[in-house]
Amino acid sequence: MFCRGLPFKYTSSLIIILLSTTACTHIPPRVDQSGAPQREYIYQIPLQIDDGWQVSTLAKEGVSEESINDMMTAVLAGKYPNLISIVLIRNGSLILEEFLYYNNRYWLQDFRSAGKSVTSVLMGIAFDKGFIKGVDEKLFDFFPEFEKGANWDPRKDKVSLHHVLSMRWGFDESGPPSNDMRWYTENWISKTLRLPLISEPGEKFEYHSAAPALCGPILESMTGMPVTEFAKEYLFDPLQISDYLWHTMSDGSTLTAGGMFMRPRDMAKIGYLIINRGQWHGQQILSEKWIDVSTRPYTSGYGYYWWLSKYKGGDEFFKTIFAAGHGGQRVMVVPELNLVAVFTSKPDDNPKGHTRILQIFENYILPSMLTSGS
Question: Chain-centre distance of CA 286, in angstroms?
Fold first, then answer.
C-alpha cells in the first residue's frame, strides 16, 4: 500500500516507471524519434517549472560543460547501464536534469532507503518544534503500553533515541527485520522491541531498517499527527513538494525506513537543506543545530541516517554527506562545492548500481566543478 501526496494524473507514471525499470539493462538509455539509439549529447538548460527551483546553466555556475558532455556521452553509449536520472544543483540553482530509459522529470522514482534521510529531517523538525525533548530520551518511554515480560534484558532500558538514530542500538536485526517487508505485520512494533540484544547500546554500528521504522510510531505518538500529515505540514509543503508516494504498512504505519517515491528534483531539496543550513527561500525549515548533529559521524561514516564519506575529484578529496538507497539511489551533498547531485537507478537486480554512480561522481561531476572561476 502507499499513502498519497500525488495528483491522480500522475499515478500512471508510477506504473510505467515500475515496468520500464525491470528491463532497462537490455534497451538503449535513450532513443531518437525514429527509435534508434541516441549517442550524441547536446546540453540543454533544465526546464523552469513552478516547483521552487531557479534554473541556471553549467557555465554560469562554474561547471565544465565539456566534462558533463563527456559524462553524458559515456552514459548514452551504455557505459553505465541502469542509470535512470541525474540531477545537479549548484549554488542553489538547478543546472542539469537528465532522464533515461523513457523516464521524465514528472515521474516518481523509488529512492528506497534514501528515505531514511528524510526521516532524519523529520525527527529534527520534531526536536526543533519541541515535540521530542532530546536524543537522550529512552526508546521504551515512547512505548508505555509495551509489556516487557519476565525475561526482560535490563540493558534495553539504556537504549536512547541517539542509539536508534545512529544505528547503534544493539538489537539483533540479522534476520527478517533487516529489509523484509513481511516483518512489518500488524504486530511488528512488539516483535521489534522484543528482538534480543547482541551488543551493548552504543557499542556497535549495524545498518538495518527496524530502528528507523520505529521513528514513525514515535513521531505519531509525540506529535499527535500521522507521519504523512506531519511531513506535509512541516516539510513537504514548505519545500513545495506535492507529488510523492510513501509505503504504508499493514497496520497503517508509514514506513520511515524507506519506501519513498519522489521526483529527483524534489529529493534534491532534501539535500539542499543541508547545504543551505535548513533554509528554503528564506524560511527556516530545519535548525542549523540539527544539521550539525545529524551529519556528525557517530561511527565510521554514519550520522543520523546520513552517510558520510570523502570522494576524489581531480587531486582533491571532498567531504560528502549522502542518502543512499538499494540499487543505486543517491542524494550526494558536497558543502565545499555548494553541490547537490541526485542519482536514481534501476532498484532491483542492479548490484553495480552504487559503483557506477561513484564512478560518474568522481570521474566527471566532481572534476567538472574544479574549473577556474568556480
Answer: 16
CATH of domain 12-111+249-368: 3.40.710
Q: Are 16 and 109 in contact (CB under 8 A)?
A: no
Joined together, the cell numbers standing for residue 148 give 516487557
Q: Which three cell numbers stand for residue 180?
A: 523484509
112 φ/ψ sector (left φ>0, alpha ψ -120 to 50, else beta): left
pTM: 0.93
Cα–Cα distances (Å) from 17 to 92, 131, 185, 195, in that order, read 28, 37, 27, 36
pLDDT, tens only, 348-371: 999 999 999 999 999 999 999 997
246 and 5 Cβ atoms separated by less than 8 Å? yes
Find where cell 543520523 sits.
304
Top CATH class, 112-240:
alpha beta
CA distance 357 to 353: 6
- Bridge partners of residue 342, in order along the sequence: 87, 331
Sheet holding 260-262, edge to edge: 2-4, 244-247, 260-262, 109-110
Domain ranges of the chain: 12-111+249-368, 112-240
Alpha-carbon distances, residue 250 vs 150, 177, 182, 219, 306 (angstroms):
29, 15, 10, 18, 27
Cβ-proximal residues to 32 (8 Å cutoff; 6+ apart), any chain: 38
Read off the pLDDT of residues 228-242 as tens digits, 9 standing for 90 and up. Answer: 999 999 999 999 999
280/183 Cα distance (integer angstroms) = 37
d(CA 98, CA 364) in angstroms, rounded, equals: 15
List, in sequence order, every residue forming a beta bridge with 261; answer none if it has no partner.
Answer: 110, 245
Give the residue among 223, 211, 252, 212 at the shortest CA–CA distance from 120. 212
User: What is the rounded distance in angstroms from the CA atom of residue 103 to the CA atom of residue 261?
Assistant: 14
Q: What would you report as the CA-atom Rg of the chain, rounded to the nearest whole angstrom? A: 21
Show the cell assigned to 143: 512505548
